[in-house]
User: What shape does this take?
Amino acid sequence: MTHHVTLELSDEIYQPLLETAQLRGQPLETVAQDCLARTLHDKHWPLLRWCGAFESNVPDLATEHDKYLGQALAEELKGNRGQ
Assistant: This one.
């Protein structure tokens, strides 16, 4: 059984999907479906093994990890300017 889904995509998501579809010679829908399927079925997410490995005093680390990684990267880049 198949289901139809309608999505609104920002240009930053749509353009790479379109370019990938064109490079592969496949319909955009096929590439989008492949991306979703890989994401949902990838049980070997590279950072999964670290989940729960460290204690933290940051209560929202599990949900805000991208924000904290971005802040750390920004601080690192500030410290490396001019080198």
